Amino acid sequence: MTALQDAEGEAVPSPKLYLSIKNLWKAFGTFLALKDISLDINEGEFVCFLGPSGCGKTTLLRAIAGLDLQTQGSMTQNGLDVSNLPPSERDFGIVFQSYALFPNLTIKKNIAFGLENMGRSKDEISGRVNELLELVGLPDQGDKYPAQLSGGQQQRIALARAIATNPGLLLLDEPLSALDAKVRVHLRHEIKELQRKLGVTTVMVTHDQEEALAMADRIVVMNHGVIEQVGSPTQVYRHPASLFVADFIGEMNQFPARSAGDNLIDIGGTIVKGEHHGLPKGDAILAAIRPEDIIPHGMGARSPGADDIIITPENAVTVDVTEMEFLGSFWRCRLRNEMFGDNDLIADFSINAVRRLGLKEGGHMTIELDQDRLMGFNQEGRHND
User: Fold this and answer.
1) Which among 225, 199, 181 has a CA at the least distance from the CA of 26?
2) Residue 87 and residue 234 in one domain
3) pTM (two decimals)
4) Are 46 and 133 within one domain?
5) Contact between residue 358 and residue 272 where contact means Cβ atoms under 8 Å apart
């Protein structure tokens, strides 16, 4: 096993490969739901499959579980080829969006279901059920029925049932989508903490970008049956491999431009610096920047201790403030300059910045397009690798 180094230079073992998917295809008649999917997942990792409806993420999860066998391709789990094994012979627990609890069984009976099928003793089952009820924070709810619990509590019980048999793999199919926003935020934190405590390899399907960013060690962004990008939350957000990824995860301004060199972008006749994009000079491209990466400077930035000296920031643009929308923790502003053509530039400014600079609708201001965050994509929406 190859050794890596931690922050202090100490040797740490490389992560152990747990689930390996190779060249997986899935067809429903003439429709290709999955197209040549290859993916490796390490032991103990929390991976999110993220993408719009119909992108193939749930189909991939069901293929891993053996609920929908792949048309071609292979899959190994913990060194065992499970490509053609039925679900009953695979080592996983699963939590569905609808919870799928047995309504006629008590909470204790629901959790005990898998253990009873394995032939465990009554004392062992009872101890394990009580342990899991404590683990999910519902020690006093064991004698109730699912209908007597809230949605969030039912989801915790579904999770307890899924991990009751100590599976090597935990599969979560949009487990939080049926809950209200506050419960969802609270429960996603609990699920992540529980996963860390147990160390169980976990794959979760979601279409909620915030959920994936908050919970995942790595995100697999999918579109039309293919993987667009695999990376940490920071990587897929800050360094999207395609315009689809950039636009799907978070907000993104995009406008037509031309390459003016490796890290230069011509937007409406104004040349600005951006990330290295490697696109040939003169090519028509798409420029993109996130609203929070637009830096406000009012009518000019002053150098510290020299109020009479005005500094023009790099990538500075003077804009009209055409609209301001208060969104609680920040203001979303629509900005206009002829270099962007008919496209308004959307910028998110903190409440303090708006107050400090005295920004108001109908006013003018100077902004800076952060050159480390201004991206260029080719006409197909991809970087020039």
Assistant:
1) 225
2) yes
3) 0.89
4) yes
5) no
Closest by CA to 267, choosing from 375, 380, 385, is 375
Strands of 98-224 (E only): list them: 169-173, 201-206, 218-223
Candidates 274, 296, 295, 300; CA nearest to 285 is 274
Round to whole Å and give the CA distance between 134 and 4. Answer: 37
Distance separating the N- and C-terminal Cα atoms of the chain: 31
Instruction: Give the separation between CA 82 and CA 72, rounded to whole angstroms.
Output: 13
Instruction: Give yes or no for residue 223 having a pLDDT over 80.
Output: yes
Phi, psi of 366, deg, nearest 5: -105, 135
Share of the chain above pLDDT 90, in %: 78
CB 158 within 8 A of CB 190: no
Is residue 383 in a domain?
no
Phi, psi of 299 (to 5 degrees): -100, 20
- Is the separation of the CB atoms in 309 and 288 below 8 Å? no
CATH number for the domain spanning 160: value is 3.40.50.300
Residues 181 and 275 both lie in one domain: no
262 and 217 inside one domain: no
133-155 burial, b at 16+ Cβ within 10 Å, e below that, comes to: bebbebeebbeebbeebeebbbb
Q: For the chain, what is the domain count?
A: 2
Check whether 301 has a pLDDT greater than 50.
Answer: no
CA distances, 6 to each of 9, 10, 13, 15, 44 (Å): 5, 5, 10, 13, 18
Side-chain-side CA neighbours of residue 332 (13 Å): 11
Q: What domain range includes position 333?
A: 251-377
b vs e for 236-246, b when ≥16 Cβ sit within 10 Å of the residue's Cβ? Answer: bbbebbbbbbb
- CA distance linking residue 145 with residue 148, whole number of Å: 6
Of 147, 155, 234, give the one whose Cα is nearest residue 194. 155
For 94-105, letters b (16+ CB in 10 Å) and e give bbbbebebeeee
What is the arrangement of strands in the sheet containing 375-377, beginning at the earlier edge strand? 270-273, 264-267, 253-261, 284-289, 375-377
Quickly state the pLDDT bin for 147 (edges 50, 70, 90): very high
